[in-house]
């Protein structure tokens, strides 16, 4: 039987995915906290100032309201396979109500993705046990218990994560110019940018015009094209390597926009 190019099996809060060809994961801001165990292949994560790849047997924690681009790829002759447990806000609030968590200082780590180290045997056994749950329909209550189990194991591995998991405050207002220059490569809706910068949509648009003298849409479009031009011209990179990195979803849209803005095809720079 020919294997499917991509497949996904999802229960409430838990997703098993498989990919036979490289693929970017849609969405470039983590909407909820979560835990991903990589069974095979490679998961590449690009953040604002860094990029890193994770392979088979590695366990990563990804943070809510942080920018990141994820790319799933086969590696070493194996399809990409992973299991992800998502800790949504409602579940975390219910958990903290049942088991009060003492507040603590938020860690200074700003990374969207935190690799987990140390003794992971119990967590590895937990993820291996989940395979038996994906072939049949299951009661909602059972899957909720499995998500809670993952949360308890995570807190055992790294107790300091409680200060991230159980922080239910909204993002505070930050410097808009620095924020936009750091995150312009991420293709995110304007209302989400406003929220993550600690502003209402109206306040964000007003502050944006005051800071950049342009609308968010126009400024982002121009800034992404300028970055693409620099990467292709100065670093001799191919357009196919650059377009998604700077915030375009398709090579055709990127090429048409580039030619309209600069008067030449991006491939003509090399």
Textual characterization of the structure:
The chain folds into two domains: 6-165, Jelly Rolls, CATH 2.60.120.810; 176-269, Homeodomain-like (Arc Repressor Mutant, subunit A, Orthogonal Bundle), CATH 1.10.10.60. It is globular, with a radius of gyration of 21 Å. Helix 6 crosses helix 7. It is α+β, with helices and mostly antiparallel strands and 270 residues long. The protein is built from ten helices and ten strands. The strands form two sheets. The protein has a six-stranded antiparallel β-sheet.
Q: What keywords describe this structure?
A:
39% helix; six-stranded antiparallel beta sheet; alpha+beta; Arc Repressor Mutant, subunit A; 10 helices; four-stranded antiparallel beta sheet; 270 residues; Jelly Rolls; 2 domains; globular
Distance between the termini: 44 Å
* Annotation, overall tally of beta strands: 10
CATH architecture of the largest domain: Sandwich
From the spread of the alpha carbons, the general shape counts as globular
- Low-confidence segments, ≥5 residues, pLDDT <50? none
β-strand percent reads 15-25%
CATH-assigned fold name of the largest domain: Jelly Rolls
Number of separate domains: 2
Helix count? 10
User: Structural class, from helix and strand content?
Assistant: alpha+beta
Reading off the top of the CATH hierarchy, the class of the largest domain is best stated as Mainly Beta
Rg computed from alpha carbons, rounded to a whole number of angstroms:
21 Å
- Helix and strand pattern: EEEEEEEEEHEHHHHHHHHH
Mean pLDDT: 90
């Amino acid at each position: 039987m020919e294997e499917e190019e991509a497949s996904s099996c999802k229960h409430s809060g838990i997703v098993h995915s498989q990919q036979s060809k490289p693929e970017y994961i849609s969405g470039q801001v983590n909407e909820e906290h979560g835990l991903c165990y990589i069974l095979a292949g490679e998961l590449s994560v690009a953040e604002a100032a860094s990029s890193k790849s994770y392979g088979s047997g590695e366990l990563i924690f990804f943070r809510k309201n942080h920018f990141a681009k994820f790319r799933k790829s086969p590696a070493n002759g194996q399809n990409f396979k992973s299991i992800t447990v998502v800790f949504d806000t409602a579940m975390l609030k219910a958990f903290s109500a049942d088991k009060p968590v003492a507040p603590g200082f938020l860690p200074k780590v700003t990374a969207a993705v935190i690799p987990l180290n140390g003794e992971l045997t119990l967590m590895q056994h937990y993820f291996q046990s989940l395979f038996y749950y994906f072939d049949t329909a299951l009661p909602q209550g059972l899957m909720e218990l499995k998500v809670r189990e993952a949360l308890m194991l995570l807190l055992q591995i790294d107790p300091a994560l409680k200060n991230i998991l159980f922080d239910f405050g909204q993002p505070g207002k930050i410097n808009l110019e620095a924020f936009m220059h750091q995150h312009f490569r991420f293709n995110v809706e304007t209302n989400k940018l406003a929220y993550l910068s600690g502003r209402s949509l109206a306040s964000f648009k007003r502050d944006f015009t005051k800071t950049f003298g342009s609308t968010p849409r126009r400024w982002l479009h121009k800034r992404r094209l300028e970055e693409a031009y620099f990467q292709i011209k100065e670093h001799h990179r191919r357009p196919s390597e650059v377009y998604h990195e700077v915030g375009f979803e398709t090579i055709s849209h990127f090429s048409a926009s580039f030619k309209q803005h600069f008067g030449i095809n991006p491939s003509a720079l090399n």
